[in-house]
Each structure stands twice: as C-alpha cells, then as structure tokens.
Amino acid sequence: DDPRPRKRVRVLALRDVLKAARDAFPSLDLDASGIFLLKLDIEGLEPAVLRTIPHLGVPVKFVTFEYADNVWQERLGGIVKELFSAGYFCFIITAERLFPISGPFWDPAYEIPMWSNVVCGEEADVDLQSLVQLHSGAVGLWPFMPRTYLAGYAGDDQVPRPLHKAQELCTDLG
Fold it and tell me: Which residue segment(s) compose the domain that 41 sits in?
C-alpha cells in the first residue's frame, strides 16, 4: 500500500560482500582481523544474514540490527536464541542502557515493541562487558554509577562482574 515508486536493488549475500572487500583490498586480512562491527538494516532480511554469521569463517566481534515486528517474517526470540547458541550475547539498545535479552534474560515481552535495535557480541569477549559499561557511562572518566546494573536485584552491590557471573547472579535471584 506504499504509494512511493519502487526501485530494484541488488541483493548480495554477506559472503559476497566479504569477497568483494578482499578483492578491492588485497592486503585486508579479514580472516585474522575479522569484522569489528557488522551493522544490518536490511528491511526484514536480518534473520537470514544473522544465521550465516557463525558459518562465515570470519570472526564478527559485534553485530547490531534492527528488529521490526511489522517487517520480519519471524519472531525475535528465535534469532536471539540461535545467536546465544553460537556464543553471542544480545541486548536491546535504549538511550539509557543496554537491556540483556539472551539466555535467562529472554522474555517474550521483548517482541512486543514494533521496532527496536539490538546489539550482540561474543559472550566470552571482555570488550562486550566494556561496551555495556561504556553505554551506561560507567567506564572512562566517569565514576561507576550507583545502581547501574541489575537495578532492584543487586541492592547496593557495586562489584563489577564479567557478564557470565552477572548472568548467574540474576538466575540465582529468580
């Protein structure tokens, strides 16, 4: 029902994009350096591309994508579960914080917003924890902000923890 004129676009698989990058920049060693940030906003095709990440043969440090309930042909929960199984931990991005949605943090309520942005990183990567802290202003020149993490659960506990330890703590708290 969109009255705007339609335009044909060329669709490329992520593997083809990587091949084009290697051809254009022969000195670029993607196998060693990997992809630092893969940003996807491809109007509902995100699930298909996200499923290829574990099989690329090139490490992807962070991936961010748009979830749009009215455009995607499937639910967000399945993709988050697949990424978690592949070693990625995901967060919904808001202006104030990153809300964890992987593993024990998943709730079907995260599929209710019609539109949201998600960021995922390799769970074992210490830079993922830094990303979460940087987003909340808890690293760098700023002091560790009180009650930044696990609000309502951790009380005044301000002990920094790796993501998997915080995850265990939340699971233990029910």
Answer: 34-144+159-173
